[in-house]
Amino acid sequence: MKINNLLVDRKTGDYICMGSSAVTLILLIVYAIYGAVFNYFDTVVFGFLLLGMILGTAAAVLAGRVKMTGLLKLLAVMLTAGAFALFFYNSFPVWADGVNHITMYNSRGGLTPVICLCVIFVIDLIGLIVSCFMRDGGEA
After folding, report:
1. For the chain, N or C: smaller number of CB within 10 Å?
2. What average pLDDT does the structure give for the chain?
3. Does some domain include residue 3?
4. DSSP string, the chain
């Protein structure tokens, strides 16, 4: 299979899924930098995002060639949502200190990077969920 053939006969849902996989890649990079700088890195969040990106990309590339790509998209949504939930749960000390203007938990980094990551997570999840409800390439 040539690279040029990967983008032939694609539907809008496939392009949205590919775009969401690109957003997930950006999210992986930003999360890794955030985790390294502020010492909040969680390997489960990173692993869920990585698996979600792989499954989303596989679903977009294999759409119309393999049955059950909708299941791959659904698994990508589940993994990304799980990563978002765990990230949000782990960022509790930052939210508590930032919203209440206290240093009870001695959190690092402030709310700005956490809010930026949450926005990227939501954009990624919306794209993945929308792609689940659209037709795959090659379907009638």
Report:
1. C
2. 88
3. no
4. --TGGGGTT--HHHHHHHHHHHHHHHHHHHHHHHHHHHT---HHHHHHHHHHHHHHHHHHHHBTTBTTHHHHHHHHHHHHHHHHHHHHHHTHHHHHHHHHT--SS--SS-HHHHHHHHHHHHHHHHHHHHHHTSPPTT--
